[in-house]
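Input (structure):
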């Protein structure tokens, strides 16, 4: 059985960049989400909010991308990445990874779900097209490096993943 791909929608309201994840958050969403969030930050956005009420699954790259954004916001002395009402599945992942206290989490959403809003509201589906494969690979590696830096058993497991990725890194042609 093939797993269905999730949907990520976004909108910008003033100094807030909002993402809504419905279904599965996967590595195919990670790089486009990160690029858009970084563009917003350069354009004056001060807060990134990710609504996880309808997220049923996050793979390690998507989770690591959230961690990368969190660290980016911290480094810029902006408010931390805010997660809205993580679903039971997401909450379990955060718990199992020892990440419960890492993110700022709010239980009450400040913006209705895209399905609850009128058609005039400006939610846009995140495009998964035309992602540079080199940038995609870089995001996958960086996401896993951030996960490998977590304390405890979860971090140790991702350190092994990073070692495996390094062994499989394409070697430049000899000169």
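Output (sequence):
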């Amino acid at each position: 059985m093939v797993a269905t791909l999730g949907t990520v929608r976004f909108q910008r309201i003033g100094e807030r960049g909002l993402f809504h994840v419905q279904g599965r958050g996967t590595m195919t969403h990670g790089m486009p989400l990160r690029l858009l969030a970084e563009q917003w930050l350069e354009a004056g956005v001060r807060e990134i909010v990710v609504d996880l009420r309808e997220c049923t699954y996050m793979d390690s790259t998507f989770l690591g991308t959230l961690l990368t954004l969190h660290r980016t916001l911290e480094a810029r002395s902006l408010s931390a990445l805010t997660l809205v009402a993580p679903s039971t599945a997401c909450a379990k992942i955060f718990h199992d990874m020892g990440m419960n206290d890492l993110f700022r989490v709010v239980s009450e959403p400040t913006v209705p779900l895209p399905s609850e809003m009128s058609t005039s509201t400006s939610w846009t589906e995140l495009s998964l097209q035309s992602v540079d494969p080199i940038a995609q690979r870089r995001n996958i590696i960086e996401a896993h490096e951030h996960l490998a830096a977590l304390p405890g058993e979860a971090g140790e497991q991702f350190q092994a993943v990073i070692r495996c990725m390094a062994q499989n890194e394409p070697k430049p042609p000899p000169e």
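Notes: The chain has one domain: 7-167. The longest strand covers residues 47-58.
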